[in-house]
Specification:
Largest sheet: 6 strands, antiparallel
Strand content: 25-35%
Shape: globular
Oligomer: single chain
Number of helices: 3
């Protein structure tokens, strides 16, 4: 069953952190490091949320919503699909590696 879950409210954070770590996208690795080190909310705001689209124990996609990046929204699909979508208030971001991927 496909569900949307929020990282900070799930019980098995270690599992979901390891799923995020599998990302081959630079922004995914940056998010992983911030979560691992407990620094995401210090970096982007206390009300930040990490939304995860899951099916069973598999992470299909994730995105971070944060007050310091309100004009940006990025979604990274699983490494198997190898695609990412990034949008800002002015339109699509450039491809990963452009510098925009740090706003996850």
């Amino acid at each position: 069953m496909t569900k949307i879950m929020e990282y900070f409210t799930v019980q098995d954070k270690e599992h979901w952190l390891s799923e995020i770590q599998k990302s081959d996208w630079g922004a995914g690795q940056f998010l992983y490091e911030l979560l691992r080190d407990g620094k995401l909310k210090d970096t982007v705001g206390e009300v930040a949320q990490v939304l995860m689209l899951t099916e069973g124990k598999e992470l299909l996609a994730f995105c971070t919503l944060a007050p310091y990046a309100l004009d940006r929204f990025c979604l990274h699909l699983s490494p198997i699909q190898g695609k990412s979508l990034c949008r800002t208030s002015s339109g699509p971001c450039r491809e990963a590696g452009s510098g925009h991927e740090v706003w996850i």
